[in-house]
Amino acid sequence: KAGVTQTPRYLIKTRGQQVTLSCSPISGHRSVSWYQQTPGQGLQFLFEYFSETQRNKGNFPGRFSGRQFSNSRSEMNVSTLELGDSALYLCASSLEGAGGYGYTFGSGTRLTVV
Amino acid sequence: LAKTTQPISMDSYEGQEVNITCSHNNIATNDYITWYQQFPSQGPRFIIQGYKTKVTNEVASLFIPADRKSSTLSLPRVSLSDTAVYYCLVESGGPSGGGADGLTFGKGTHLIIQP
Question: Does pLDDT of B89 surpass 80?
Answer without folding.
Answer: yes
